[in-house]
Amino acid sequence: MTRMPPRTNVAGGRVAASRGVAFSASPVLQVKMPAWRSRVVLFVLFMAFLTLAGRALWLQGMSTDFLQKQGASRYARTLELPATRGKITDRNGQVLASSVPVKAIWAIPDDVQEAPKDKLRELAKLLGMSDAELRKKLDSDRNFVYLKRQVEQDTADKIVKLGIAGIETRKEYKRFYPEGEVMAHVVGFTNVEDTGQDGMELGSQKTLAGVTGSRRVIKDRLGRIVEDIEAVREPHDGKDLTLSIDSKIQYIAFTQLKEAVEKNKAKAGGIIVVDARTGEVLALANLPTYNPNDRSVLTGAQLRNRVLTDTFEPGSTLKPFTVALALDTHRVTPSTVFQTSPGKMTIGTATIGDSHAHGPLTVAQIIEKSSNIGTAKIALEMPAQEMWEMFTNVGLGQQPKFGFPGAVAGRVRPYKAWRPIEQATMSYGHGISVSLIQLAHAYTIFARNGDLIPLSFTKVNDSPIGQRVISENTALQMRRMLETVVAPGGTAPQAQVPGYRVGGKTGTAYKIEGGKYVKKYVSSFVGIAPMSDPRLIIAVMLDEPSAGSHFGGTVAGPVFASVTANALRALNVAPDSSVTNIIIPKDALEESM
Amino acid sequence: MTGRLSFVVTAMLVLCALSLVNAQYQARRLFIELERAQSAARQLDIDWAQLQLDQSTLGKNSRIEALARRDLNMVSLTPERTQYLTVRDK
């Protein structure tokens, strides 16, 4: 019996539990706790909630901007939308300058330090520099170092593939100039930032340059763009520029000039070809020149655009303007005779002279033989003011408006200060300075029927309106005279062109160094072709020819002839002369200086 | 009655929510496609510029002249060797 009761007890206990005990009868409630304990708990809980609410308020109200910015910076990205710089093409659409995307390679030096040696060696090889050079660049305190800029895409891809930590790339543009040195002075070049530095690249910087755009986007985990957050600021590519240059004629002009500079051992040279109908510059070349694709070694002499920025005393090439003025004001006719004997003339204290004593010459012969005395005598019959106006009207001494940077004005002194000797020497192109492009420009009055049109480096669609300087009749008379210059009796028979009637004027002048004339020469020739219906004006200048002759006819004349022959053929101009055999007299007349 | 109405509204709500999710998904997919097409267009532009450049490089006068003179043994024509024909207008 003693074994049973516990069992009953247990069973009885279970029964009671399953039935439940009334809440109020719960023994737990019977325990009396001090009242402050529940209050403490309540208070702590309340404070905790208050803190949370306060924190929420703080985050929501006070630092919301900061937090949103932080958030955005973790998923939103601002992308730069690059704009391409406009292309430069020649008049026929051939590309002369074009920007191609390349990569700049930069590094965070601290991060690269741990990179394995062989990978760095490979990197140096890809960058085309020695290990030491690379190490020197990486040995820097800054946290951004350009290793190399304008790296071509293929090479950049290989560098990225090396997977060196701390080596990054940045997109940029490199400008390529397929025509290289031939076009260098016309087109100019840009710097690594793709900003124009010289030539038309600088002159048309505003229209060529693009405007970069930007957009803000959300990127997903894989780096894909998921959404635009703000309106996209579209990039605007630069406008393409169509030059007036004809790359065929440019090439002809450049190669012929180069040949002449080498043959005559000249220090420098320049040539410009202008379309007489539209005023477009078809070719402009300078020597020495440079390769715009590789400008690691550049000298000032190479960069100089002599045609536009160098002024020289033109010499006899200016005589036609003096004569044209006299003809236009009916002071003389082409057959008026002037006595140039004995080849010397004293004005005031100075004496001027001709290289040969010619005796009596008609006005036409004065041009043909290039007589200084004849021209001076014509000039002295005219008031200084009229001569000054003539020079000014054809653009000499005036700031040119060609839309080309660096063009100079030259110098024509105010007529009030002219003394008679100065007026005389100025009539044959001394004591006055001009640039070659100004000369070519001035000759448009002869090539056209007496009017001057503006020159343009960009393609012209409508023929420009000219400004009349001399009468049509005078222009025609002058053209006839200029044609005699290249005839066997003139100063430039070497400038004859087989198949075409051409004309022009030689110029040979001493150079001025330190305010004094020195025994160094500038030989020039300005010509017009074909004479029956002028199409081209070509001006050639050679600086310090030193291989024997220094006369414009023998030095610059042949350049004019070969450029004209090839250029007219390239332009499909029909020949206007049946003469195919050219006679150049053995000792052609040397002009006066 | 109210039980059924709320069931219908709940169902509509769920449907709307699902369609929103779907629309969002479609929008992102299309956007990525657009992005891809745009970058392809950019790449084509770059290729076009590169090809134009190549054309200029290969077609530059100095190269043509060198090829004509050296490889093809051509000479420049002179007026003496040129026959000019005049076509009379009828």
UniProtKB/TrEMBL annotation, chain A:
<keyword id="KW-0133">Cell shape</keyword>
<keyword id="KW-0717">Septation</keyword>
<keyword id="KW-0132">Cell division</keyword>
<comment type="similarity">
    <text>Belongs to the transpeptidase family. FtsI subfamily.</text>
</comment>
<dbReference type="InterPro" id="IPR001460">
    <property type="entry name" value="PCN-bd_Tpept"/>
</dbReference>
<keyword id="KW-0645">Protease</keyword>
<keyword id="KW-0997">Cell inner membrane</keyword>
<dbReference type="Pfam" id="PF00905">
    <property type="entry name" value="Transpeptidase"/>
</dbReference>
<feature type="active site" description="Acyl-ester intermediate">
    <location>
        <position position="316"/>
    </location>
</feature>
<keyword id="KW-0573">Peptidoglycan synthesis</keyword>
<dbReference type="InterPro" id="IPR012338">
    <property type="entry name" value="Beta-lactam/transpept-like"/>
</dbReference>
<dbReference type="InterPro" id="IPR036138">
    <property type="entry name" value="PBP_dimer_sf"/>
</dbReference>
<feature type="domain" description="Penicillin-binding protein dimerisation">
    <location>
        <begin position="81"/>
        <end position="228"/>
    </location>
</feature>
<keyword id="KW-1003">Cell membrane</keyword>
<keyword id="KW-0378">Hydrolase</keyword>
<keyword id="KW-0812">Transmembrane</keyword>
<feature type="domain" description="Penicillin-binding protein transpeptidase">
    <location>
        <begin position="269"/>
        <end position="563"/>
    </location>
</feature>
<dbReference type="InterPro" id="IPR005311">
    <property type="entry name" value="PBP_dimer"/>
</dbReference>
<dbReference type="InterPro" id="IPR037532">
    <property type="entry name" value="FtsI_transpept"/>
</dbReference>
<keyword id="KW-1133">Transmembrane helix</keyword>
<dbReference type="GO" id="GO:0051301">
    <property type="term" value="P:cell division"/>
</dbReference>
<protein>
    <recommendedName>
        <fullName>Peptidoglycan D,D-transpeptidase FtsI</fullName>
        <ecNumber>3.4.16.4</ecNumber>
    </recommendedName>
</protein>
TrEMBL record, chain B:
<comment type="subunit">
    <text>Part of a complex composed of FtsB, FtsL and FtsQ.</text>
</comment>
<keyword id="KW-0997">Cell inner membrane</keyword>
<keyword id="KW-0472">Membrane</keyword>
<comment type="function">
    <text>Essential cell division protein. May link together the upstream cell division proteins, which are predominantly cytoplasmic, with the downstream cell division proteins, which are predominantly periplasmic.</text>
</comment>
<dbReference type="Pfam" id="PF04999">
    <property type="entry name" value="FtsL"/>
</dbReference>
<dbReference type="GO" id="GO:0051301">
    <property type="term" value="P:cell division"/>
</dbReference>
<keyword id="KW-0131">Cell cycle</keyword>
<protein>
    <recommendedName>
        <fullName>Cell division protein FtsL</fullName>
    </recommendedName>
</protein>
<comment type="similarity">
    <text>Belongs to the FtsL family.</text>
</comment>
<keyword id="KW-1003">Cell membrane</keyword>
<dbReference type="InterPro" id="IPR011922">
    <property type="entry name" value="Cell_div_FtsL"/>
</dbReference>
<keyword id="KW-0132">Cell division</keyword>
<keyword id="KW-0812">Transmembrane</keyword>
<keyword id="KW-1133">Transmembrane helix</keyword>
